[in-house]
Every structure is written in structure tokens, then in C-alpha cells.
Amino acid sequence: MPRSLKNIIIGIVIVVTAISILGWRFLSAAGWFTGIRAEVPAECHDLASVPGPEDIAIDQERGLAFVSALDWRAVMRGEKGVRGGIYVIDLKAPEDKWALAPVTPNEPADFKPHGLSLYIGADGKRRLFVVNHAARGNALEIFDVADGGALTHVKSVTSPLLVSPNDVVAVGPDSFYATNDHGSTGLSSKLSDLLLLRNADIVYYDGNSMRIAADMLLFPNGINISADGKTLYVAETLGAALHVYARDPATGKLTPTDYARLGTGLDNIDVEPDGSLLIAAHPNMIAFLRHASDPKKLSPSQVVRIEPGKDGGGKAGTIYLNLGKQLSGSSVAAGYGDLMLIGNVFEPKILVCKQSKEFKSF
């Protein structure tokens, strides 16, 4: 065999092997090989919604649920003039009367909301922070919140560091942390997913300037903070893990303190009044991607409950798991008393479920 032909064959074998290994790593991270042996049911009913109630934040004191919604499929189809909105559910009303009431102001006109966070100051004043994927560029919109939930736009925060913002947690009347789920956009971001590159980060805005607070993350998604403001939680979707950081409230500095691999594609995080976490998840990201392009293809939905330990660690388990028939593409589970509201990325409904405290295995 000629040496040149032999080298070509060796080169082809190396390339094919490398592609196979990369493909296996990505499919494994995306849950392709994850088997769901049994569903974990909950007592649920549907609450009609506009399409894509992707994130929910609950004002426990006032009994209001703020919902960020956008018709993501219309956006993916390239439809012009798609505008999302913020809606409020009055949780103090009888449960059979719950409904989404629009509270979105006219400004900003170009509004494609994603993650959101409610801030309550020591004086009781409320502000809502919302990720906005506007055509002019990504921004964090800050709104004042009236007693009934009506919103008044305060300002837009923009920065070159907001590369691909996904979720936000407010830590002051003008300050926040936000996750960039990718370190780049376009084809580069797709390649970073395929290669499982840890090139995404968390940014911190102190009210005046923005900086990177933590990096080397693999598709960071949901972000939230403990009631005392000293512990920050970040969910990785492709990393299938929860990161825990100690936070210095004076400087905003983050120090990694704990890490838990949970083996499922974590999405938004809700911190309940007792300090436990509810995290919606996508057990099979490949199924989720198929569901994104075809609503007839189901995507499993999962809710993980975590009870952090006082000195690190803690316990975690699944409290809801459905193959996708009841709800596909769960993105948030927000607790209110013994209930939880489960939102999703595409479907025009929210699930209202009894919240179990009994953990099941993943």
C-alpha cells in the first residue's frame, strides 16, 4: 500500500473516531442515553396561558405570580413584530379563578422576555428584572411594581458582556447577576455545545458597571439566591449540575463552595420560603430540541427538589416526572404553599400541581 494512501486512511480513521467520541459525549450530556423507568406523578390541572410561559417569580407576601411569556416558535420562524409580555396571576383568588392578567407596559416596544426576578427592598418597594432579547441587542429591563402588579419601566441595562443572557437574579434595586448560557452566538455557540466547551459565565451589575463574576460554565441557565443574599445557586443545563457560590454582599464577589451533578438538564431555580430549591429540568435535551421544532413530539418534564444542608451538601430528589404528555419542556417550577406552578418553553399552559415533599430517585 502506498504510504500516501496509508496516511489518508489513518487520517480518516482518526477523524471518524474523534467525531464519534465528540458525538457520544454530546448525546450523553444531552440525555440521549437516559432511560426513564417510571413517571413520578402529581395531582395537577392546567391553567390556560399564552404560549411560552417560560419563567415564573412569586411574591409570597402579596400572593402574586409574575409570568414571563414569549411565543418562542414564532420567533424561531422569523416572524416579525413578535412581542412577549409579563403577566400576573392573583394567587389569593380561589384556585378555579386563577388567570393570567397582562401587566406589560408599552415600553420597551421591542420586548422578548426570558428569565425574570423579583426584588423586594427593605422598604417594601418592589422591582422586576427581566432579560430582554431585543433586536437592537440583549438588555436587562428594570420595572417598578405597583401594589396590584402593574409595571412601570425604569431603565434598560446593556453591556457587551450580555452575550447570551438567559436568567437573572436581582440583589438590589439596581443590581443583579445574570447567566450567559453561551460565550458566543451563532454557529460558534452551536459548536461550543457540540464540543461541550466551558466558555459561558455569570455577570454582575452593581448599579454602575458590569463585570464577569464567575466563568468556565457549561450552559448556565437558572440563577437564584438565598434569602440572606449570601448563597448564589446556578443551574447548568448541558453540565447537568448545580453550582453553589458564597457571595460577599458588600462587593458582589462569588466564591465556589459546592457542586452537585444531578444528571438532568437543569433549567430555572425557585428558592422557597423554607430555603429549599425547586428546579425544573429537561431529562432529554434531544427530545426537547425535537419538541421545539414540532409540538407533536413530546419532551419529558421534571421537577427536582433540593434541601441544602447547613454545612454544605443536602439531599435532592425528583418530585415530578412526566414523559411529556401532560406537559412538554418544563422550564420552571415555582412554589406557593403546598402548590407549585410549572411553566414551559412553548406550550400555552401552566400546570398547577400539589407539591410533594417525598423524594423519588432520578
TrEMBL record:
Highest taxon in the source lineage: Bacteria
Membrane-spanning residues: 7-27
Pfam families assigned: Arylesterase (PF01731)
Keyword Transmembrane (UniProt): yes
Keywords: Disulfide bond, Glycoprotein, Hydrolase, Membrane, Transmembrane, Transmembrane helix
InterPro entries, per the entry: 6-blade_b-propeller_TolB-like, Arylesterase, Serum_paraoxonase/arylesterase
Gene Ontology molecular function terms on file: arylesterase activity
Entry similarity comment: Belongs to the paraoxonase family.
Record-given protein name: SMP-30/Gluconolactonase/LRE-like region domain-containing protein
Organism whose genome encodes this protein: Parvibaculum sedimenti
